[in-house]
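Lecture notes, continued. The same structure-token format from the folding unit now serves as the input rather than the output. Read the line below as a description of shape only.
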């Protein structure tokens, strides 16, 4: 019973990190400088999931979730012609992050639904435990 809660909790943590990563992408969609103030567009982050190496102390078939935040280095920056911008290159183009807001919002909805599913799973496990205790009492 508790194993199911542990598995769902690992899913909650992973989806929370995914939401935080998406929020960071949206917040930095127009960032043209890095943390040190140097002209360098923000690079989109994304979360990848894998099976957890934690066995949660049981030999059951279920596995938890591990996550890794990665930087998307495959996409080139989005170049916008803004000659008056302080970060414009010699041709007047500014390098902005290639972050698609629609994609980020769709990912946020998906992460939110997965989070809700894990919460529902935990609630169901708690109800089952309460019912079992009532039967035994």
């Amino acid at each position: 019973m508790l194993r199911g809660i542990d598995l769902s909790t690992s899913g909650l943590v992973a989806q929370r990190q995914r939401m935080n990563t998406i929020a960071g992408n949206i917040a930095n969609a127009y960032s043209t400088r890095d943390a040190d103030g140097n002209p360098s567009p923000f690079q989109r982050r994304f979360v990848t999931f894998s099976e957890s190496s934690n066995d949660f102390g049981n030999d059951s078939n279920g596995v938890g979730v591990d996550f890794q935040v990665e930087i998307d280095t495959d996409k080139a920056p989005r170049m916008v012609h803004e000659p008056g911008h302080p970060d414009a290159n010699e041709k007047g183009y500014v390098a902005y992050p290639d972050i698609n807001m629609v994609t980020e919002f769709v990912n946020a909805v998906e992460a939110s639904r997965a989070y809700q599913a894990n919460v529902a799973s935990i609630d169901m496990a708690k109800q089952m435990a309460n019912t079992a205790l009532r039967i035994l009492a």
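Point for the exam: The beta strands are 45-51, 65-71, 78-81, 93-96.
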